[in-house]
């Protein structure tokens, strides 16, 4: 899989330079609750629950093996009541009590911290976050640097040059850019954003109607919370102005609640936190007392089942709870005889996990470094293939002993293609594409299961489905990071240069984890009622997408260059006009220079300076000016549009063009969206503009090979058809059955216009309403789209639901389903989890309800086209046709078809796509063909 390359986004803590002081502060609560919820119940023989203790100890010991500081401490909450409860009685009032089975584990977790030799800190009346803030301030004032191990958003206000955070799940650093990405402001203003937006989890009230994005925009305009409250009376939007003016004191109280106290008492001296090794006897005694055999083995204490008489103390050892085999040690396979034994073992088992190690995320260009196999949990190996090649070339150093790639792949090919042995992979499409390449043996791996896709089939939208996250969630195990074996930054080495012992530990663990995940996740498919969907669609589409990505689509590089030249010339002409309108030349791409022209020199109204002192010139500012008739603002907006098209869709496509094939090869992500839709990346071919003239010109550069045409097959109004199906609206069903124009029919019925007299404007409004309803659009949103008042928009929506009451009932049913279960289902039974549907924040909850309304339609459309995609290749082959499916763009499929087979191919494509699902309304597909993608529309 692509985990090696994907892990380049992860970051181990950089080593502490000699002489530098580095304090690591671990947020104990984050570890505790993550461990408790990730692991199944586990008890000692005396009945004490220990799953959170086990997970906490495992995470902390693994962290200590990988991250080194001069000082370290785990910081705990001492109790629920703090000084904040005297400020606001409702603070954290809604938080539930800890589960009964977790409460006895708190004291054991503190004992675990002591046992591994780490200082621990807690103080009555203060939250752990306050203590972290205090020690971070004190330590940096002494010239040291601090790393806070937590993903808690409240702690992000502490980030600065000498204080960073480390996300313990993603192992990613959180610095100022990551804070800005989450909150839209620099760290010093995080508390101001939280004071405005509030926090439903901690019952921080905030200002009603103000969310994070709005808060960030307001602070960018007014500087900080007090500046905003002082200038609230100048805000144009009446509701926002009134909310801020009426709730100013509530905002100030909220800031006192969220602002961390960095001057709390320090219950432990900083020097008491100096990093030290644990006392082996104390650690072993603690682990044996809890019965943690796998941790005993991993930490080198020998036989986990050591007889009590052989121990250093006479305390009776309890019976250890049954545990899974340890992760490692694993075997490095460097000769064909050993490889033969592993192949025989895999055949006998009938199931194996498989993983590849490469040097790139691009599966069509990545060099294969090695392959790992697992035949049962805890039993895995790594087969290096090209290790040491770089060092050998550069230093004439001998390469490590290993099997030649040709010999190893030839030996593995029969096993990997054996239909009687199931191959389990994580993100299988990547490995399949790597192994299918001729230089890697042209191996057609089958049959397969994909743990990423299995997880996604059950829990789309609930959490991520990468291997590391799934391992932590379902196995309670944090895999070795890529950075820890290859290094980071300039010190990073290619995986093929990693010493074989480290490479084996990392790569074989991947296969081991994948097989363990399969044993946990695959049995759940039937219980979750998603087995049929996985087997019939999700698993089968992996090979379909592999073929599409490998084929790619041809691009006329010369035409793309001509478009780029034309865009460049247009930009020059546009710049000249902009300079004339401005009265002087300047860098149009510089927001700072543009702001000075607009507001300093031309003295235009409405300018606002940001915190850095520069005038704001974003699209909202320019559109406001353009609406006032300012030609310069409109000209700059037009220039920006062409500049973005050129950089993103012309220059970007040219960079992605494969010189070997003259084609671009996109990558389809199977498990990245919450609705089940595929996502296209590198390059993204799903976001090329459709309706604009410039977008059509770019699509014209996508062409068929000589003797072929491109065929585009597009589902017509599929989401509206799913709405008519789910809501069972008789009039809509009738309109679709008759092939009527649904928007004209809607306009006629809700506006009371005779069917033959609906004009373009009425149809446009009806179309906006039809699609807006699917997306849960409010009266305010509809008013903005139609340019009418909110009252008029409310009247239109009421008329719509009055005409189609089944739609309102359907929407309410979906919201209720999401609130009750946390998810909604598509027409085909797929669960789509809705984040924040239980939020106490009305704004977030309303957004979640809109998502719950839309998800079955987007998700259902995604499933319909996926079903077509898995059936079409076989149908075309059986008909003896040579068409190849190239692209999926939302509701559209693009094929490359031999000229002589266009009619026959069109008939099959249309038939399969229109009959792939049985709905209460017919599916309709529009077919077009031409030499280019643009001509096919």
From TrEMBL:
It comes from the Bacteria. Its EC number is 2.7.7.7. Residues 310-329 are annotated as: Disordered. Residues 330-526 form the 3'-5' exonuclease domain. Residues 695-901 form the DNA-directed DNA polymerase family A palm domain. InterPro entries: 3'-5'_exonuclease_dom (IPR002562), 5-3_exonucl_a-hlix_arch_N (IPR020046), 5-3_exonuclease (IPR002421), 5-3_exonuclease_C_sf (IPR036279), DNA-dir_DNA_pol_A_CS (IPR019760), DNA-dir_DNA_pol_A_palm_dom (IPR001098), DNA/RNA_pol_sf (IPR043502), DNA_polI_H3TH (IPR020045). Keywords: DNA damage, DNA repair, DNA replication, DNA-binding, DNA-directed DNA polymerase, Exonuclease, Hydrolase, Nuclease, Nucleotidyltransferase, Transferase. The keyword DNA repair applies. GO terms for molecular function: 3'-5' exonuclease activity; 5'-3' exonuclease activity; DNA binding; DNA-directed DNA polymerase activity. The keyword rRNA-binding does not apply. It catalyses: DNA(n) + a 2'-deoxyribonucleoside 5'-triphosphate = DNA(n+1) + diphosphate. Residues 21-276 form the 5'-3' exonuclease domain. It holds the Pfam family 5_3_exonuc. Single-chain monomer with multiple functions. In addition to polymerase activity, this DNA polymerase exhibits 3'-5' and 5'-3' exonuclease activity. Belongs to the DNA polymerase type-A family. PANTHER family: DNA POLYMERASE I, DNA POLYMERASE NU. This is DNA polymerase I. It comes from Plastoroseomonas arctica. The gene is polA.
